Amino acid sequence: MLVQRLGAPSDFDPLLERVRDARIVMIGEATHGSYDYYRLREQLTRRLIAEQGFDFVAVEGDWPDCDRVNCSVVGAAGGLADPQTALERFERWPTWMWANAEVARFCRWLRAWNLERPEGERAGFHGLDVYSLWESMQAIFDYLGEEDPASLEAAQEAYRCFEPYGKRVEEYGTASRFVSARCEEEVVRLLARTREQATADGPDRFSAWQNAEVVAGAERYYRAMIGGGPESWNVRDTHMADTLDRLLDRYGPDARGIVWAHNTHVGDARATEMAADGMLNIGQLARERQGRDAVALVGFGSYRGNVVAAPRWGSPAEVMVVPPARDGSVERRLHELMPERAVLVFGGPDEPEWVTGAADHRAIGVVYDPTFESWGNYVPTRLAERYDAFIWCDEATALHPLPALTTPGEMETYPAGV
To answer: InterPro entries annotated for this entry (predicted)?
Structure first.
């Protein structure tokens, strides 16, 4: 194991050497609301793009919202001149995950970097997630209305199937348990038409196909969510892994991608109790599909600090105090052993027992109650097996949300919240 004190972007050199041959680098976060994680992840990502030629960033966000950001950062026709304006249009709660000053700064840098390069060499920004059923449906209508009006019927049939449930599609999931309410056949027909369209080149055709994949994934997700258990989690992470694969194919045989998501998605589930509970995640799937040497998984953690989160589902975000990590946890050990900021690169025969053995590892979602620290908010983890590297911030501060539009909380990500 190698330990490098972090004080400047150049201190990421040992980690950059470790990931030099990786096709995918996944960079996690222990919360969705810590400035330090976002800022350090931005610094690492800039170097991966500028120095190692990575082709895109794919985040734990909705495809349609992130597609507006992508059009801005690549300078596409009709794209917004300022990526922050696109981020401020994120409406789904919790908006602060991506509509924040830290992501805006990165996206402004990415646009400036891209505009100095030919169109075919520009790095994209994409969403991996599965929740945007209605937004993706609308995007398909907009595309087919201009490009292929003859295919509108398939989209309208799918829309009509979901329409009785309004935008509370969890009611669709409930109904599908008791009556023949499934929209699966209509969604499959829609997916087949948009896949056929996507065989021709063009970013708009690919985006329409991806939106159809979101609709199909969302239909499966909402049915699975009502049943409880690990299935809805697995549907979601499998959809994210499939989307990542499509992006790699889209960008070409030598494409390389960066993923931004919570540690619970990035860190290999097989090195945690998630596996015993029947859960998988995108980090595990990428290793299985691409081969371990082609994938680098980077986690984050801190001992204490402040975080932006919400006390209840759908409620306004607030800055909360994160108490010191509990005894015996990964974070308590790192607090005792590491400098204030450091990067740990795992590998080699001399790994200490405290990174190969199991210990509690803190995970804070968009809903957080610090009083649960004594019995919740931790995932037993074998650190050096779950990640290839780990970025440590002894004390993390709260990020800075943008004044984005907000809709009332919905069930879409409940109860996982990560």
So the answer is: Emycin_Estase, Hydrolase/PRTase-associated, UCP036794_erythomycin
